[in-house]
Amino acid sequence: MERDPADAIAFMLKQEREARKWSLADLAQRSGVSKAMISKIERREASPTATVLGRLSGAFGVPLSVLIASAEKVTERLSLSERQSIWTDPETGYLRRAISPAGAPAELIEVQLPAGARITYPASAFAFQQQQIWILDGCLDFSEGGVEHELKAGDCLLLGPPSDCTFSNRGPSQARYLVVLSRG
Length: 184
Prior knowledge:
single chain; Jelly Rolls; 2 domains; 4-stranded antiparallel sheet; 30% strand
């Protein structure tokens, strides 16, 4: 059973914004996302793209998975596959599954990037965490600042200092990869 994380995204977005005593305009200025879009997301009138969520998480200084995963603050040791949070980007079909139990010190995220899809995140989305990408199936073209990486199944890349990043799948089939996040 796949859970729709739209409620948790809306809840966490508003909670993070209000905890900082930021207005919609404050968050819009910090993230580069319009006030109207932020308001629609908070009211569940719009589903954000991966790029928009990356900008918002960067503005808050929290991992993207925090905005996507359940709003529950419970620490768990077991994450059953049928209860894992799954989110799909409405624009690209990018699918993201949060694998790790809630509260784990490192986060495991499985991503499925359709053929022809491209996702760009600002450097601010990576400023507060270390990230590794391990390719499980297919190929992934990854741009980290000005550095290009052509990754294939089995390859693992540790990201360097925060910079704008683009995940591109120019191959004929879906790319599937694991993202490992650790705060640091």
